[in-house]
Write a structure and sequence with these properties.
199 residues; Tetracycline Repressor, domain 2; homodimer
């Protein structure tokens, strides 16, 4: 049992170190050696846990998705205002990016931009994650429509797609400008003019 | 004269081949050899035209920006409806992406996502291009406000930022989903609910 736990924690350690490096440098530019060096895990161990660099990349996406999906579930808390939950999500994302000096951003957006034309294996998985996240945002928006917080003249899934387009672009622009102004501007117009009662 | 023209055209040929490869593979993953092979330019010639791979990357951005800025000037044609010009820009972008089988997308967005955390040289130049493009979109929106096509209760520059956040995210998502649906959804909600008379 102790051995399994250690093995699992070494694997998670590699996945988490890989995530942090890949968030800044992308998939192609991240070296396995760099990940091993940052964790102190011996060179020979990598292929015990991962079949290949591609397998490592895919497991990083799965690990990130599992963690992030858990975080997104907060948006479905039925005891709270769905619209306030979405606002809080935006505000927290801005605070997180600011705390990271506007570096890193979103792994799914970063890898999508980098890998969509290069690997069908990555593209398919990234698309699945995008659609699964969209369905959570769509449920939150549908809840807000049911409570009369957002006009129900628009399809919740389209509004979720609209939100995710804008938010992922805003994060990318914030990274490039090294300030969260694009996220502030996008969310302000979004909540004042799109996600409202009489849209 | 003829010699200068040939030199210039070889340089442009390298820049354009580099742009096409970099649009799909990003900066780090593009090899100089691959660019040379695709153009038939001899290996020794590259450093006649470019100081380094970084210089090549920067000149690719400048070349792309010069071409794209020229294309964006159409948005400022005062004989036409500014709002219709912006709609046409979106429709043309969608057609272009579809014609490219939803590959490549926007070089500025792609390189921003990849390079913003890795190189201040790239980041600064990409930010300049983003802001210069934003000022063209903002002028188009301000023209539409002056003509009463868009409510003037919002700042034109903020609306341009909002548009660029959403549009760059929509292109990224279209590349990942390999269909232009995200661009369709984003532009439809944008024009129906944000860029309108009584926003």
């Amino acid at each position: 049992m102790a051995k399994t736990t250690t093995k699992e924690s070494t694997k998670v350690q590699l996945l988490e170190a890989g995530t942090e490096i890949m968030l800044e440098k992308g998939y192609n530019n991240t070296g396995i050696m760099e990940v091993l060096q940052s964790t102190g895990v011996p060179k020979g161990s990598f292929y015990y846990y991962f079949d290949s660099k591609e397998d490592f990349g895919m497991q990083i996406i799965n690990h990130y998705d599992a963690t992030y999906s858990e975080k997104l579930k907060v948006l479905l808390d039925e005891t709270k205002s769905p619209l306030s939950l979405l606002r809080s999500y935006c505000e927290e994302s801005m605070r997180n990016l600011e705390q990271n000096a506007c570096r890193k951003g979103c792994l799914i957006g970063n890898l999508s931009q980098e890998m969509a034309d290069q690997s069908e294996v990555f593209r398919n998985r990234l698309q699945e994650v995008m659609l699964s996240q969209r369905s959570i945002f769509a449920s939150c928006i549908a809840n807000a429509q049911a409570k009369g917080e957002i006009s129900n003249t628009m399809n919740a899934s389209d509004l979720a797609e609209f939100f995710q387009c804008g938010w992922s672009g805003a994060v990318m622009r914030a990274k490039t400008m090294k300030c969260v102004e694009p996220m502030k501007v996008f969310s302000q117009i979004l909540f004042d003019h799109v996600l409202k009662c009489s849209a």
